[in-house]
Amino acid sequence: MDKFKEWFVSQYFYSNMRFVHGDALFDKDGDFFRILAVQIAWEAWQSRQSEFDSMTEALLNQTQLLAKQKVEVDEKDKRIEELESALTQIKLWESHPKNYETNFGSWGLRDFYRDLAEKALRGEHEA
């Protein structure tokens, strides 16, 4: 009710209605305003207020969804950064670990992974 009165007082027609009706402008009989113009404005206000409330709720839901998606994107960005770091380390791999040749064979495996890492870092990947 207070917001309605604040809005009503801020309208261009308020001064004229206040002059005509005086202090009785917001008087009520039960649930209805005595002045018909005020009652009509109140009913219009109420109908628009329900629309406003539903839009506010929808905005709140969208904001919560956006926050949830931002968290997911941030987590994926972190994983991507970790993978890029690992791929960069593989790309820069110059020598084999100790016992590599006896356990895995040749340098070909290293070169395969280095080439794969370079392609991934450039954004080239097989579809």
What features would you highlight for this structure?
127 residues, mainly alpha, two-stranded antiparallel ribbon, 5 helices, 72% helix, rod-shaped
How does the SSE layout of this entry go?
Blueprint: H1 2-9, H2 14-21, E1 28-29, E2 32-33, H3 36-91, H4 100-104, H5 108-122
Antiparallel strand pairs: 1-2
Characterise the protein shown here.
- With 127 residues, the chain is mainly alpha-helical.
- The protein has a domain at 2-74.
- It contains five helices and two strands.
- It has helices spanning 2-9, 14-21, 36-91, 100-104, 108-122; strands at residues 28-29, 32-33.
- It has a two-stranded antiparallel ribbon.
- A hairpin with a 2-residue loop joins strand 1 (28-29) and strand 2.
- Helix 3 packs antiparallel against helix 5 (108-122).
- The longest helix is centred in the middle third of the chain and has 56 residues, at 36-91.
- The protein is rod-shaped, with a radius of gyration of 35 Å.
- The model has no long low-confidence stretch (mean pLDDT 80).
Beta fraction: under 5%
Rounded to an integer in angstroms, the radius of gyration calculated over CA atoms is 35 Å
Distance between the termini: 62 Å
The residue fraction in helices comes out at over 70%
Shape: rod-shaped
Number of helices: 5
Order of helices and strands: HHEEHHH
The average pLDDT score comes to: 80
Structural class: mainly alpha
Q: How many extended strands? A: 2
Name the poorly predicted regions.
none
How would you sum up the major sheet?
2 strands, antiparallel
- Spatial order of the strands in the main sheet? 1-2
